[in-house]
Batch of 3 targets.
Target 1
Amino acid sequence: MSGNSTLVEHEAPEKLLAQRGLFAGPSPIVSEDLYAEVSRGVADRERHRLVLHPHAVVSMNTYFGRFPATYWQRWCVSPEVELSVTLTGSGTVAVVASDAEGESRTVAAEQVADATRQVVTLTAKIDKFTDGGGLWFDLTTGEDRLVVEDARWTVAPPAKVRPTAVVICTFNRVEDCLNTMAALASDQEPLALVDAVYVVDQGTDAVESRPRFAEVAAALGDKLRYIRQPNLGGAGGFTRGLYEVTELDGAEHANVLFMDDDVLCEPEIVIRTTAFANRTAQPVIVGGQMLYLLHPNHLHVGAEYANLDTLAPGQVVEGALHDADLTGFDEETGKRNVQDRRVDAGYNGWWSCLIPSEIVKAIGYPLPLFFQWDDIEYGYRARAHGFATVTLPGAGVWHADFHWKDWDDWHRYFNLRNALITSALHSRFDPKRICRSMASQLATYLVGMQYGLAATQLKAIEDFLKGPGFLRDGGVQAAADIRKLRAEYPETVRHPASEVPGIASGDLPLISAPPAPKLFAPVLAKRIVHQLLGKNVHDVGAVSSGDSAWWHVSLFNTAVVTDASQEGVRVRRRDRELAVRLGKQGTKLIRELYRQAPEMQRAYREAMGELTDRSNWKRLYDL
């Protein structure tokens, strides 16, 4: 299914819509306090309409209510922003600004009396926000009520408005994908800014097979481009969108907005990211932020980076909010948890992320990594070419909480292998630091009786050492191989908590963990020796997910550990012979990694151009 074969720049409107003032979310599970806070009296909050009863105060100093002025001043060419609101009744509207420390000041205000759909416009200069601060508006009523509609923040437009394509990558999450498509189709104003919606379906359970698909497709109209292709992971799915857009006539200045299939989509993200991309001084990657789907008030992180020397993704940039309740308050300052200080990201996750086509032209396509670290590698490659990543506050979607996903899973293979590749490409790739990190991880997996996870790690190192030629199939074989390998290890299987194989539920005392050791290395060494000698503190017991650290689980002969998903348990049983065998195999592999690291770094860097070339992806897509 396809629509128009061009993405062309649009004539600029009189004013460029930067964001809307919304008063409630796209779903009942989302708190209205993320949009508008009723700080006094009574107010009725609807998506596009707010009714303040007499003697009420509503503040838009909220996650979705704030205009991120510090980011606009740092990256964009807009000297001022205009707020317009349509008011009926009596009351006051005021534009308020903050600074990097969160101190507020009123910028402009206007009072109306007995108004009937009166449009009030207030202007604020974007000139005192370099280190931090935002803008928002507050509303106050006296004896009468006030109805607020059509709240809009606008800036001066560019000469031409860039076309935008949304790309949704999906694999056997049919209902999730249809929900995301339907969310985009449900809101006409952001949808009008989208020229094409690419749905790249890599699953065996086709999205188009559902009756609901026809309904959603009709709502998207000729914007929809539905593509079936073999499963090449997230990297292959998202890259297909880049591939299609950059082939089109007139798309040399276009936005490509990635969207995970399993998010709760806030359609407003289209308006905010595309407006920002239209006004940046130079092309930048514009990242949307991730809020937790299971805990919708919580922000995952304000900005993150990866430590490429230690292969650690998801590091929190200093000063950024992390796992923060956006409706709560900072315990030290007593101020609302908002991102006043500007923080600069190293990369942005592809749960929702806008990439300008100019960057693709300059640095090539993503690497065929299949899954994980593809977004990190691309962000750091862009940075090396002078293109920054901005993680934009207020541009958010809800995605499954990361800490409810168990680390001991097949995806850990791609996490480790692709981390090694990214580090080889974009860091010093110091063999001593890398191998020390690998050895430490392996030791904790073995003493924690996670033998399948240890085997997963060793497979990742082994395949990295095969060199860049191993990526020629886009990761298809690796995905099949790692699942087959892990199936050989019983503790990788999740069981219902009520049916633990081989253990009567009455024989399972829940044993809490002691405090974390102050000195890790001596405790780790001690645990290794005790396990080799067959010593243990507990024969069998249950361990909660929060207590499942290696220094506790290593005290058991058999530990029934709650899975991080809370959907079941894993049974870890001590196996001395297996631990020794994996330990010997790991020692040999890590030595090989140490020896071959410089050669591997050269090989991956030399292969980068070929792997990220359009012709390589054309071959993978069999086009």
Target 2
Amino acid sequence: MSDGDTDRRVVDGRFELESRLGGGGMGTVWRARDLLLHRSVAVKEVRPADPDLAEYDPDSARMLRERVLREGRALARVQHPNVVTIHHIVDGGEGTYPWIVMELVEGGSLADRLARAPMMPAEAARLGRGVLDALRAAHAAGVQHRDVKPANVLLRTDGRPVLTDFGIAAIRDSTALTATGSIIGTADYMAPERVAGSDGGPAADLWSLAMMLYVAVEGHHPLRRGTTLATLAAVLHEDVPPPKQAGPLAPVLAAVLVRDPGARPEAETVEHMLAAAEEDGHEPAATSYPLAPPLNAVPAPVPTPSETVVPRPESQGRMRRAALASVAAAAVLVGGITWVAWPDGGDKASASPTTGGRHTTPGTTPADTPLPSPTTKLATGMLTPDGIRKALRAIEDRTGRDTFGDLAVYPEYVSVKAMVPGSRTRYDSYTYRPGKGVEKGTLPGTLMGKLPVSLKNYRWDKLPALLTLAEQKLGVDKPASPYLLLQPPNEFNDDPEAFEVCLADKYATGYVLASPQGKVLKVVPADG
């Protein structure tokens, strides 16, 4: 690093350090300016946790430097949108440690995201698929990550994950302990075989990925203990307790978080399981345990049969009402939690506000809202009347089934839960994508509380006007993710058969609820 001025620090005569982004035992990450190409980059100086390593063990220090350079060069050959791009490696020669110049990912880290609130299963499954794609690309290039954890998953501004810090992970595998016996790095996400001293192979990265997803949906680490040694002992000897909030993601976690790496599924199988979890995770699994609000929470008014209680949406999605009566529903918000409870008793005097005798929820628009003239540009791809009809025809032609337990429509594809003939509960998942046709999911399923429906009489021609209404009413300024979800009737409550037209950005989701004939039943803004 050169110092032209006292307040100007330039690496390799080219990368001007501007501000510190973070750091730890393995070095410091800086936001920097590439003075040659006039772009912002991230620059990290790689250093071992023990600064005296070069003095008491120069051979190990030299090995670390060479290994980081070798793995950084290998990773630079991995061209994948979910792997951080390495632009340049600054090598000062013997007696120095490398500087790695990478793309600057500006959406923060997964650790930052989880500090606000846990994830819904579908959101976590989608993120897990992106990280798994990155790992598979790296493994194909002969590179193992060795340190998959929330802090090493960066998020682009559109929410896509980017895996980083491969070169740092290489150091940890070269020397597990410093001269004083301190462990380099954190033990929380290390696979048991790596704790035991083995390299572990790609299966160890899968363990770390699954543990990260467990933490993402549960909000806590199941094996973290009061000290690092106690955590290591738990990873080595204790079983991972079953998750309570993972819903359709639970089978993936149960399959991967086993101590025997040979018993874990291959990456391709994990990808299929995550895809199925993402498809099935649009609503949380019901729980038989009555959830209680936090001690300091103010309970919501007790709804009467004619009232509607609408949970507020989570930062990357929204939670539907729980399927079982007398079960509390929690909606996770950025910066806090809002609890909506249905207790067995309560103060009937606390009623919801009404408008003209019609009960409403603050922040929502009353039913019977007239549809505007369709002017939207969001009706694209499969998210059009013709696109939906085409997908449903293709699925019926392929399967012979026309009764469904769920439907999700995105501009890129349509997925359904097609009921097994003769059954009201068992279904198979199918996805239709233009150019690929109908593909069957890997795992069958069973409906919980929902009743299957026919979609033949749905007025899909109302979709453009509903999307226009959503743009006007939901308060999502720059929607990055328009989609449609089926709301089948529920055998445990009075939810009507309907569908939701949803708009989302990176912060929140709002939706318009419409009857099968396209009549507006409810409008719930993103901040409602």
Target 3
Amino acid sequence: MNGLIESADVRERLTALTRNTGGDGSDLKIRTMVLAELKKTMTAARDETRRRLMEDGRGLVCAQRLSHLQDELIRIIYDFAYFHVYRIENPSAAERMSVVAVGGYGRGTLAPGSDVDLLFVLPYKQTAWGEQVVEYILYMLWDLGLKVGHATRTIDECIRLGRSDMTIRTAVLEARYIWGDEALAAELVERFDEEVVKNTSSEFIAAKLKERDQRHKRQGTSRYLVEPNIKEGKGGLRDLNTLFWIAKYHYRVRSQSELVKRGVLSRAEYNRMVKSEDFLWAVRCHLHFLTGRPEERLSFDVQREIAIRLGYTQHPGMRDVERFMKHYFLVAKDIGDLTRILCAALEDQHVKEPEGNGLTRFVRRFRFGRTPGPAKPVDGAPGFLVENNRLNIASETVFEDDPANLLRAFQIADKNGYYLHPQMTKVIRRSLKLVDAKLRSDAEANRLFLSILTSRHNPEKTLRKMNEAGVLGRFVPDFGKVVAMMQFNMYHHYTVDEHLIRSIGVLAEIERGESGEDHPLSTDLILTLQNRRVLYVAMFLHDIAKGRPEDHSMAGARIARKLCPRFGLSDAETDTVAWLIEHHLDMSTIAQSRDLSDERTITDFAGIVQSLERLKLLLILTVADIRAVGPGVFNGWKGQLLRTLYYETEPHLTGGHSKLSHRQAIERAKTELMDRLDHWPEAARATYAERHYPHYWLRVSADRRLAHAELIRKADLASDRLAFEVRPHAFEAVTELTVLAPDHPRLLSVIAGACFATGANIVDAHIDTTTDGFALDTIFISRELPDDDDELRRGNRVTDLIAKALTGEARLPETTSKKGALKGRMKAFKVSAEVLVNNTLSDDYTVLEVSGLDRPGLLFDLTRAISTLNLNIGSAHISTFGEKVVDVFYVTDLTGQKISNIGRQEIIRDRLEAAVDGEIDLSAAAPVARKITLHAG
């Protein structure tokens, strides 16, 4: 800490300030000058600490420097109060005090924004002098801008409260003398150890583990969340603290290094603990300095800057921020390993005691809720024992004798529902060198692995245990490359390895019939598969090539062709797995961004799939993949789109699509509708049958055709030129808005503007035009309210604004600036605007695919830009993938033709790219507030 703060010089300067007032430091003017001097000293020292952190990157040392600075400031303030403000010549026995750091500060570490936790220890009672000194110190610290947690107690009070309050007990456990009467602090530590800590470790461990579990539940149970809380999250600093609290309390040690002497940790494990702590402290200190506040969440908007400060650089296939976050998640994984090692050491030391002690009873009761029984051999698995439903090894050499036992242990645990004994996990971790090329090529080892992967029990849980133990990444090295790998985007909630393992869990849920409400079709289809194991293998490998410079789907297929024969799959099975991986994104992309009523979409997709069995496999894999991305990513609307694509494609693969010609299909659709409209006059039915163009009858479902007919009939009878219908769909999690209005190129733009203004998020839009000049637009917005009646009222508010905008009674927002619209985490991302113009995806339309950084009002700007280009929109499909949006428009020119002119295509690209960037040019469009004439033609 040399050179950080010169305490003697500061004390001399403060003493000099009092000389003109006869040494009376209580004068308000003197106090103001003292405070200014301390602020200057503190600011300079913190600036120096920040500079040294940027220079040496030593996080733990930075935290210790800040703690040292705080110690010195408290000592200086205490001395000034003692000698210049409340000086007493002959203090009584009660006029003594010790200033003690507790909590995190007691460990001698502080982050830039940390609270300063102080305990003012008194001998046996409070005095007026003591109150004055404590108050002076606290107010001085508060005026310095510090957040101070404090308590003033006698030693007896500390002991009494420590026994009854676990938070106070934990704080005092970290007590460290700062200044004042040192003997008081020493007495507190000695009595606390004898009167509180001794023989109470089981109680303390139970409380700390319960507290940890509750904290994990609040923060998110996975340590692989892509925006982790570095202090409170799983695998964060608080977990390290809990680890040391338990060890310190139980083994009654004062430092982490003593755990090596006690045999709790090996030297390598201790070094891993120190490195993990140093890394997390570096991240935390940088985060506090960067944000200027005690921010603990490593959010997207700061991750890249932290990565740069820590010196990470870009590598092929991985950005600097992704390399930094991978390191972070590996450290979080190490902390999990250290926790398991400590548990193993605690049990190993005490389980052999004949009567057992509090810790042993606690561990067994906490985990199993019953008295331990004798260990028994596992049938058919020599070398393994089971005790109280926990699998353990019979000897330390079981893995050396047969390395395949490293796989067999997990297979036995999965098959029988056993927990893994911490001692066995510890030995597995130390035996990882046995997982070599020879074991990877061993037929029995691969059989065991495939049995785990395709298990009908709980493959997700078992694979996660294998991953945490390090076995999975070594047995499948390509999987090891994606362990702790983070993708820097808002779409994926977990690291790649966690996503793959979760996707296996979702697949198992579907197979067990536990996901029927989310996607009933996949639940039904999985029971009809000819070969379920190709699905599980493809699921496990589908993202295994992430982080490589090439397309991960193609690279993943190549990896599958290498791994599948090793796992014992046949050539045909290998081909199917490779095909599924190569095309694992196709069904999701087509369902969300293509017009599923366009015959070309379906025939092209059927050409990719080629067989009904592959269609089933791809649907189930797609559902599980999306659901494993993160909470809320899969919804009813996406499920509906996937089901529609499946049902539209299925006849093409079974020959059913050729039974009726287009003309026959149109006539059948008309006849079906006329039959359902038998309550209409015959003339009205005949007239209505001619109000729609042929493609309407082919792409609109029977129920929607009936609803449209009734809406239009009602409007005709009332002579209304505007009509609306709102229909909530709870299962699909969308609300359907149907708009009948005179056709106009800007109609969809007005609808999008009204949705933007009311906060409604459009997920899909279908535009139909009648032969008599009306537009029949169907808009799907994301559902927000759980109750149908509430959602109906919300939908009516949207349609009311649409009506007012169309009649000129309300103004819609002006164009939105991309810079102004981006907020919070979105600012961290850069997604280049890209516009693709494609005439091959549809027989009747030019398809515009617009991608870029999502922002409020983007669809509004895009539709207005399209209207300035004099294009008619046939349908619009909106897909959002985290921060990236992909909007697809099926368009024609005003004569109903595709856009074939190359020059005009370039103009479209330029104009829409500008709109994505918030630079929309409305010079060719009518003002937004101008009403659309409400008459046909």
